[in-house]
Known about the structure:
InterPro entries: CDR2. By secondary structure, this protein is mainly α.
Amino acid sequence: MSELKMYNHLSGSNNRRDSLEQDLAERLSRETPRTSSDELQLAALLGKTLLEKNAELEQKLLKLQDFAEDSATEKQTLMRQLTEAKDSLQFSNKTCEQLESRAEEIEKANTSLAKLCESQQTQLEQKTAALQDLEEKLESVQRKVQQMKEHSECQTACRSCSNGNSGRKKTASRCGETSDDTVDSPTAPQGGEELRKAVEELTERLQTASYQRKKYEKGLREVLSENQSLSRQLERAESDLGELQARLRDLRGSHGATES
């Protein structure tokens, strides 16, 4: 628009110069015959006027050229800024897509970790119940072993005191006191061999129960440790997800500001 105005201004100046020349020529043609001195004065005046107009037009032309150069430089600067803004916008869009993909992956990982924690919690409850049941069985076996030991001692005492009526009565009395949950001596296993086998069997069961108890306790500790590790991983994943969502909101906000 400014260049068009400048062009119109120059065109108007040229038109005024042509009009001035035409007026001078008409004046010369209408006047009576003049002397050579008058003609020289008119020619000098016309030449001076033309020189002044030419100088003025040259100045305006130089200004117009400077203005055109400045406009071209400004246009190049604006084009470069526009290109940079487009590149920045493309990078922001790509970053947003990457963050959205990462957020989806973290959400899936959080879901998987939550399911794994639930599964581990279920296993923990099952192993805890099994451990409690095993402890009850162990206590029962220990009681039976103790009863069998007391019964064995009672039988040994009965055999050693078989020649004395008084000793037999005392031993029988003690056997009756210490074997409330066992069978009476007439129906008890005959011979030390059967009793020894029973004691060995109960001892073996006791050792097996103790081993299983230690095994379950170790597994329980491992499950607890793994649950704690999974909980920490879940907390870190949730924290990372929150940071990514915040960055995504910031990028979307800057994206909207750039478009506006």
